[in-house]
Write a structure and sequence with these properties.
This protein has helices at residues 6-11, 35-40, 57-65, 72-90, 133-147, 160-168, 199-203, 277-286, 304-318, 345-349, 354-364, 371-384, 414-421, 450-458, 476-484, and strands at 30-33, 52-55, 99-100, 112-115, 153-156, 172-174, 192-194, 208-212, 215-221, 233-236, 242-250, 253-258, 293-298, 324-329, 386-388, 402-407, 429-434, 464-469. With 485 residues, it is an alpha/beta fold. It has three domains: 30-174, Rossmann fold; 186-258, no CATH class; 268-484, 3-Layer(aba) Sandwich (Rossmann fold). Strands 3-4-2-1-5-6 form a six-stranded mixed β-sheet, sandwiched between helices. The protein has a six-stranded mixed β-sheet with strand order 7-10-11-12-9-8, with no helix packed on it. InterPro entries: P-loop_NTPase, PhoH, PhoH2-like, PIN-like_dom_sf, PIN_dom.
Length: 485
């Protein structure tokens, strides 16, 4: 056998490399929207990114049935209908093939909107009568799941029973999550942080310290300072206890400032002193003129309303920082509604303001001995500086140089919260109080409440602060009841 020359061997073509198969692109999902999703958030049409959305005829029917009235639900139904009209008008010839959402949503969504354009007849189980709107939407989901076996078809609904029925029929269903700030409220910003024992050793290298107007300031930088937020409260127990808050932050460099001790009688606020650490933190926020927005969370009896009213009265009547206190709250009853109420706006709101009257009784008792006449005069003076307003008449108003208290703020939607906070004019301070464990509005949860939304979005802003009050100070009975019931 003749030897193969090196030249011939080199010229032999190499075996062709096998081409890598192109990676399969995951199928986009098809989300079928229940009516309550659109009535909860009309902008949900643009919240599904690259996925397609499908709106059944029954969803449009139910939107039409709910569009009358002045309620938030009716307003959202009308807004959802207008947005859908805008989308359809952008490509009227593409209804059958799906209307692209990229242009009307300004590239927020890149999927398509499909409207039901054909009669769908799917045999549902006998226990699900087709006369009910929910069951007709379930029939549409079943039909789409059979027509598109190669892509996920998912029902999106705020109705828990609707989702259970869908899963019982073997269909995919999920809640609308886009408006939820947090999945787990345990992760909600508390406004406080305990410093570890090693904090000063790890971060105190090159620390600067100085005093100004009775406060001590520390400038430091280290591995633990990068996670701190402006106006976050820090504390450390031990031989040298510390209570301070972050006043400035630039990269890893922070400036800490020691607090005013409102637990001491000499610093009392309208006769009230802080009974625990969180109350002291809260009073530092409420009494600081540089803080425009304060949120206080806490269960019943932690002192939210009392501290806020005491701070408000001090700054309205003593230091004249604000002209008056304006108090409002969401009128959602715990039990049955008591119906229409006679009188002026203030008189109609009076039954909802029991908490205000209870706290004023406490504060009026702290004004010193002036006899019955003195106390009566003080009560009249206080009431003349507190205005009670209804949420229904807030739109379009501007409050200048006011101390605005929003009570029971956990029952507000994020949109209502925005409407209220944007009422603040120059020199106004807004304080939101609430307990996210006591939400009375049917469509809100702890994760989607306007109060949770405000706490999460405002954290770290130099002119806002938040404290979650932990300890109840009402009575031993109230504390035990909150714990065991």
């Amino acid at each position: 056998m003749p030897a193969v020359s090196k030249k011939t061997a080199a010229a032999k073509p190499a075996a062709p490399r096998a081409k890598r198969a192109p990676r399969a692109k995951p199928a986009t999902k098809l989300f079928v929207l229940d009516t309550n999703v659109l009535m909860h958030d009309p902008t949900s049409l643009y919240r599904f990114e690259e996925h397609d959305i499908y709106v059944p005829i029954m969803t449009l029917e139910e939107l039409d049935n709910n569009k009358k009235g002045m309620s938030e639900v009716a307003r959202n139904a009308r807004q959802a209908s207008r947005m859908m009209d805008e989308i359809v008008s952008s490509a009227p010839d593409a209804i059958d093939s799906g209307i692209p959402l990229e242009q009307p949503s300004q590239r927020l969504a890149t999927g398509k909107l499909f409207l039901q354009t054909e009669a769908i007849n799917v045999a549902l189980p006998a226990a699900l009568p087709t006369a009910k709107g929910d069951n007709q939407i379930l029939a549409v989901v079943m039909f789409l799941a059979e027509r598109h076996p190669d892509r996920p078809v998912i029902l999106v609904s705020k109705d828990i029973n609707m989702r259970i029925k869908a899963r019982a029929l073997g269909l995919a269903a999920q809640d609308y999550f886009n408006d939820k700030v947090l999945e787990d409220t345990d992760l909600l910003y508390t406004g406080t942080r305990e410093l570890p024992a090693t904090f000063w050793d790890a971060n105190g290298k090159g620390m600067e310290s100085w005093k100004n107007e009775g406060r001590t300031y520390y400038r430091l930088a280290g591995p633990d300072t990068a996670n701190l937020l402006v106006n976050e409260f820090l504390y450390q127990d031990g031989a040298r206890p510390l209570e301070a808050w972050v006043k400035e932050k630039a990269g890893r460099s922070v400036v800490l400032e020691t607090l005013i001790d409102y637990g001491h009688q000499k610093n009392n606020v309208w006769g009230i002193t802080a009974r625990n650490r969180e109350q002291n933190f809260a009073l530092n926020l409420l009494m600081n003129p540089e803080i425009d927005f304060v949120t206080l969370l806490g269960q019943a009896g932690t002192g939210k309303t009392l501290l806020t009213l005491a701070a408000g009265l001090t700054q309205v009547l003593e230091t004249k920082r604000y002209s008056e206190i304006i108090m409002t709250r969401v009128t959602v009853p715990v039990g049955e509604d008591i119906g229409f109420l006679p009188g002026t706006e203030e008189e109609k709101m009076a039954p909802w303001m029991g908490a205000l009257e209870d706290n004023l009784d406490v504060l009026n008792g702290t004004t010193g001995e002036g006899g019955d006449w003195g106390r009566a005069a003080t009560r009249d003076l206080i009431r003349s500086r507190i205005k009670i307003k209804s949420l229904n008449f807030m739109r379009g108003r501007t409050f200048i140089n006011k101390f605005l208290i929003i009570d029971e703020a956990q029952n507000l939607t994020p949109k209502q919260m925005k409407t209220l906070i944007t009422r603040a004019g120059p020199g106004t301070k807004v304080v939101c109080l609430g307990n996210i464990a006591q939400i009375d509005t049917p469509y809100l949860t702890e994760g989607s409440s306007g109060l949770t939304f405000a706490v999460d979005r405002f954290k770290g802003w130099p002119h806002s602060g938040h404290i979650t009050l932990q300890r109840g100070e009402r009575s031993r009975l109230a504390d035990y009841a909150a714990e065991v019931l």
